[in-house]
Amino acid sequence: MADKALTVRTRKFMTNRLLSRKQFVIDVLHPGRANVSKVELKEKLGRMYEVKDPNSIFVFKFRTHFGGGKSTGFGLIYDSVENAKKYEPKYRLIRNGLDTKIEKSRKQLKERKNRSKKIRGVKKVIEALKSLVDDAMPFTKAGDAAKGGKKK
């Protein structure tokens, strides 16, 4: 598959200093091929923009045009992997192997949902946070949670 011609063009290139990245739209011409893998695109972009670490390149939202032979998507090149971890959504970090997905059982999620149905108001928010943070909240007693931290 990799022996057929492949052309990568970028447009709408912008250096985003606030998020420490370069962002652009990618046009990929791949006549005679079904599509191009994201790994192959990352390698090609890494060579085009002289990127030191290929983990700081993110490509996503690719759509193949009708009739094939051309795809369009988005690309981001972060200045460092730390910046990528700071600003990228967690699901994209997981897809690129920079983070791990926390596996929760279906039963556990349903039990948490049903427990939260039985609680009303401010307590519901606090209980949800407790279950997420696992006792890292300052409200440890039910009485403190009911008061909401306010003094009378």
From TrEMBL:
Keywords: Ribonucleoprotein, Ribosomal protein. This is 40S ribosomal protein S24. One of its GO terms (cellular component) is ribonucleoprotein complex. GO terms for molecular function: mRNA binding; structural constituent of ribosome. It comes from Acer yangbiense. Pfam families: Ribosomal_S24e. PANTHER family: 40S RIBOSOMAL PROTEIN S24. Belongs to the eukaryotic ribosomal protein eS24 family. It comes from the Eukaryota. GO terms for biological process: translation. Gene3D superfamilies: 3.30.70.3370.
